[in-house]
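PROTEIN DATA CARD
Card holder: alpha-N-acetylgalactosaminide alpha-2,6-sialyltransferase
Chain length: 211
Origin: Perca fluviatilis
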Amino acid sequence: MNAAITKGYEEDVGNRTSVYIHTAHSITSALYFFKKFGYTTVPHDEGIKYVMVPEGMRDFNWLKGLLKGERITAGPYKNKRPWTYYAGQYNETRFYVLHQDFLRYIRNRFLKSPNLNASYWAIVRPSNGAFTLFLALHTCDTVNAYGFMTEDYKKYSTYYFEKNIKAPVILYANHDYILEKNMWKKLHDSKIIKLYQRTESETGTKKPKQH
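Structure generated from the sequence above:
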């Protein structure tokens, strides 16, 4: 999901992406925010499946343009051509949209944040990573999670590909990352998922470690 950088990290994350989960915001903004880390395009392995998380009207505008093969006519992505963002691998038969009932189910059953009672409740939602994990749990026999927040998250950068970055993890208001972190630990401790957690080696580089 988001900026899935694999080059240089194949030993940890593999070198093939089978499913890419995104919103209109993440597929467009990732190209801007993560270019400096070597991210140049969304994953586009042959036969890849794309899954969209519709979080607002801008996503439905994106879907309309994508499915009709037309420029977007309204919203923040007006005049953009959505199909050009899939590096030639967009195929309607391999494109999926998560149902709103599933999104509400995950939010209300597993990740119901107290922030939903705050004045900014309208922007509060589980992260793309959270939806990805629960989608995997509902479709796969086994789930291994890499790159998610763990108990010692303050020791590391936000993303695994941010080498030598000491900046603290930024917790934005729209996602309850602490709630999600606790959920991943609970699922791991219950042996429902295998959560890989990072530790620093003697050379100072960060390697994944399974607990």
